Amino acid sequence: EGPPEPRKCSHCLGDGTYRCPDCFGRPLFCTSCCREIHRTHPFHRVEQWMGTHFQESSLRL
After folding, report:
1. What is the superkingdom listed in this entry's lineage (predicted)?
2. How many domains does the chain have?
3. In this structure, what DSSP letter does residue 39 have?
4. What is the end-to-end Cα distance of the chain in Å, rounded?
């Protein structure tokens, strides 16, 4: 499943490279917003868009 086009961060409208299946609505995030938002949600699983698919990623982006 691919992200919507254009891929926009749900917070700053930057490049939405990451998504979080554990967040309501599975929003897309840029790197900075993903780090900031998940600072208080360390157990959420983050996925990164790899060009053709999402792959599990680390918050140590």
Report:
1. Eukaryota
2. 1
3. G
4. 22
- The range of the structural domain enclosing residue 8 comes to 1-61
User: What token pair was written down for 14?
Assistant: 């930057």
Residue length of the chain = 61
Measured in whole angstroms, the distance separating CA 36 from the mean position of its chain's CA atoms is 11
Residue 27's alpha-carbon distances to 11, 60, in angstroms, are 9, 19
- pLDDT tens figures, 20-43: 999 998 899 999 999 999 999 989
pTM for this model (two decimals): 0.81
pLDDT score for 4 = 66
